[in-house]
Amino acid sequence: MAMAGGVRLFVYYRVPLAQLPALVDLVTAMQAELRRSLPGLTAELMRRPGAADGLVMLMEVYRHPAGADDAVEAAVNAAAAGLSGLIAGQRQTERFVPLQA
């Protein structure tokens, strides 16, 4: 069974191409602040190659030594509250653990 530290948080959403530069700047700053406030947290921002209907899919990935638990998810969601005007639709949040051999 996977340990708590293996739980990772994935947050994905669509962004209009015109909003992408501003959103990347905001998310980069947001993730830096989250790393400062949650010692041990790692954060990535990725995008799906290409665009569809003028929208780009972005993915935020969070890992923490104690696992990406409810407290980590709540902190990420609170920090991201100001992003809603720049994204298309809702942010989707899911947790995954690595498969153990």
Give a brief outline of the structure:
This protein is α+β, with helices and mostly antiparallel strands and 101 residues long.
Number of separate domains: 1
Distance between the termini: 10 Å
The helical percent reads 25-40%
Strand order of the largest sheet: 2-3-1-4
Principal-axes shape call? globular
Give the C-level CATH assignment: Alpha Beta
Sheet of most strands: 4 strands, antiparallel
Q: Which fold name corresponds to the CATH topology?
A: Alpha-Beta Plaits
Class from helix and strand fractions: alpha+beta
Q: Determine the strand fraction and express it as a percent band.
A: 25-35%
Examine the secondary-structure arrangement and name the CATH architecture.
2-Layer Sandwich
Can you walk through the features of this model?
With 101 residues, this protein is α+β, with helices and mostly antiparallel strands. The protein is built from 2 helices and 4 strands; from the N terminus they run βαββαβ. Strands 2-3-1-4 form a 4-stranded antiparallel beta sheet, with helices on one face. The chain is globular, with a radius of gyration of 14 Å. The protein starts with 7 loop residues before the first strand and ends in a 5-residue tail after the last strand.
Task: Quickly list its features.
101 residues; alpha+beta; Alpha-Beta Plaits; 4-stranded antiparallel beta sheet; 28% helix; globular
